Amino acid sequence: MNKTVLITGANRGVGLALTVAYLEAGWRVYATCRDIARANELTQRQSLFPNLTIVELDVTNHDAILHLAQSMESISLDLLINNAGYYGPKGYGFGNTDAKEWRKVLEINTIAPLKLAEAFYPQLKEGTPGMIACVSSKVGSMAENTSGGGYIYRSSKAALNSVVKSLSNDLLPEGIIAIALHPGWVQTEMGGPNALIDSQTSAVGLKKVLDNLTPADSGLFMDYQGNYLPW
Fold it and tell me: How large is the C-alpha radius of gyration of the chain?
């Protein structure tokens, strides 16, 4: 029986690389993106992998999340990867924080992962049981924040880490593992050209970490190389 994963933000970057990594490993992959018509790299994979199902989803539309979950109610889900993310404005300093953009970033980076976990909870229980992996960032770590700035993105990922910790406490008794993951500094539209690794390196590393997770890791913060990170 093939294992099944749902990956959000699968049209580019780490999300696309994760999609390919799981397809190549023989998983059944449900890959979401906001606009299928513009997701060329993702849709091209459909002819190569019959196990790929592409779903149009705006993760900030909670009704759409529920509708998708209802349409997949008969599917047992081994893994939910909350990858869809938004950085927001770059280069602003103290005194120039755009509150409207901050709300948008929180909607995508913090609220959506929890709403997805809630909606797909029945399918995750049917998994063996399942796992919830949230792509966070080291910049959300309080201990690692020695340079300041980045108020919007940092706070959204710190809040996401808090969500993961609560999910772990609530769901581990039922066997569902929740983990926060740092993908590394990746050469993507968000990470920029100066980043240290490519998206494939990140995805292969993240998959290896997830393949080897145990219940003891639930509620923790790990990077793509399997190192534990401080909150």
Answer: 17
pLDDT tens column, 155-190: 999 999 999 999 999 999 999 999 999 999 888 776
Cβ atoms of residues 203 and 9 within 8 Å: no
Amino acid letter for position 185: W
Strand order, beta sheet including 177-182? 52-56, 28-33, 4-7, 79-82, 131-135, 177-182, 221-223
**CA distance linking residue 40 with residue 217, whole number of Å:** 36
DSSP string spanning 73-119? TT---SEEEE--------S--TT---HHHHHHHHIIIIIHHHHHHHH
Nearest-5° angle of CA 26, CA 210, CA 223?
A: 135
Residue with tokens 């770059």: 90
Report which residue type is found at 115. Answer: K
